[in-house]
Predict the structure of LacI family DNA-binding transcriptional regulator.
Amino acid sequence: MVTIYDIAKRANVSPMTVSRVINNSNLISESTRRRVEKIIEEMDYIPNKAARNLVGKRNKLVSLIVTDIVNPFFTNIARGAEDKAAELGYQLLLSNSDEEVDKESNYIRATISAGVDGVMIAPSGDISIHNLNMLSKYKIPFVLVDREVEGITSDLILGDNRQGVELLMKHLIERGHRRIVLINGPDYVSNAREREKAFKDIVNREKLENNISPIFQTRYKQESTDDIVNEILSVNVPHRATAILAANNFIGVSVIKSLRKIGMRIPEDMAVVCFDNPEFIQDFNPFLTVAAQPAYDFGYIGMQYLIERINGKIIKNRKMLLPSKLLVGKSS
Amino acid sequence: MVTIYDIAKRANVSPMTVSRVINNSNLISESTRRRVEKIIEEMDYIPNKAARNLVGKRNKLVSLIVTDIVNPFFTNIARGAEDKAAELGYQLLLSNSDEEVDKESNYIRATISAGVDGVMIAPSGDISIHNLNMLSKYKIPFVLVDREVEGITSDLILGDNRQGVELLMKHLIERGHRRIVLINGPDYVSNAREREKAFKDIVNREKLENNISPIFQTRYKQESTDDIVNEILSVNVPHRATAILAANNFIGVSVIKSLRKIGMRIPEDMAVVCFDNPEFIQDFNPFLTVAAQPAYDFGYIGMQYLIERINGKIIKNRKMLLPSKLLVGKSS
DNA sequence: CTGTTAGCGCCTTCAC
DNA sequence: GTGAAGGCGCTAACAG
């Protein structure tokens, strides 16, 4: 391994001078700078981050913790985050928490151990507060994306959930639906609570039949929704809901599968809409009607915020609320 | 920041003893071990990787370099890789090369600088050889996934491209197609060369009309294929190709878009098949007929190989060839 | 503008 | 079983 000492020897300078060169110090004469740079090039010298980090320097390393990179929503967040990070010279550690606090907790510890400068996280839920406090204890800045956590103040990049629900509900109502069911995510995730609140408000405001517009709860994962769908269909036809609003793409897809399994036609027998695209290419084969959140921007802007924080430029907490776009498919 | 010195003081032992505890040395009495462990717990001590790394220890950090995490093929590779890495206590650095050698080169340097123990990479192409040699120079083990590189020997996790092409061609031929066009990836990527070779062999073997079965080349990216499609359609109908084999999902999707743009019906006017799912959920809304590669396994097995290499368990190079599965959609 | 000294947190080596 | 000394590669603080 080539070190600054090797460079120094060859260049007839002290290691400190080499250090100054690789850190772009301007307390150096142009001639020695050039000489040293040439030798660095020749010897393929690559600085050792561990050593740098040990003396208290920034590590230029950030951590991204999502629930599941396979969800296109988070895939795009990851890409946005990585693009911005790379642009600013940072590297990205990736973890999948699967919405499990314990896994998340392990990742947080590993992440601290690795000496990251900051963390961008879509927290598992409100119980993530302990993990986030751990970060605070180590003075590691973080931003929350997609979800906030009760009792935590930080920079936030969130979807405008009320606006998204309005978009989907308005669309369904325009198509004549009056009996709409919400299949929501878990109530320990902030965006599920917000989506539910918006849903209820609209049901009241629009005087929809809210006795037949109950709210079901599942998880934001690839899980069967057969039971919930069966329960919805157990209501006899004149009173049965005619449309389902799924709180995210995984739920939306599961609902479609459950409906198809028992021969229901979509949208004739049941309309389905959801948050977030289940597919990564927007305009290719749209089946589901969705409120598409600008996931890439979540990641890109979030990383910008995070690195500003790392550099100590920003003190007060910021909250960015990003709107969804309605993409009408065949499912409604 | 809590260090082994803090723990040592509180436990009335030397820092060395603490070090032994956190490294599960067995040269320690049960009683002191327990005492130290208790204090570690109390003080929320987290080891500093930078320090560990500096004294030459494993960093428990690996790097994954893909061309684009947004491609579901690589998304699933990433998930498989991260799962295996986490299982074995490793963390994952993620980078997107966009199939550009210079970007890749920067990531490789950053990755070395970060002190990774190993690298899993889908190389940009044959020119990646310099980047891989850089890794060798630093004695960092690596495995190649999805693509091999001429002149590089290493562990390999590859798709069985011949088998995949056979699958798709057999399917098309069974449906009566005799004039098939290949829209391939760039020839500096090994799998493109293999797919082309298999395609040609089958065209000859099956005595397909190979004067009208030319091969076009584009990139494995989300780029327009309008020009290529127009060229294909410029042939008059009795002689025009009736099916297109796209070498990956991005190309497949682009081709569909190009065809739709000019009002061609799929599959009536033109059948389309490709490698890899363009969607992350297999059984939801299948439009394209695809040869689906087991991407998750690429990542999972690849990471297993890599970490075995890191631990010095394996010496000879291994090559894992994974078969595709045919998923028939509406596009053919 | 350049060099010297000391130390970051941990582990290897060698004592005891 | 436990501890002391030294050093990994780098940079902050000081000196010249």
About this structure: Residues 1, 3-5, 15-16, 19-20, 23, 47-48, 50-57 of chain A lie near DNA strand D (CB under 10 Å from a C1').
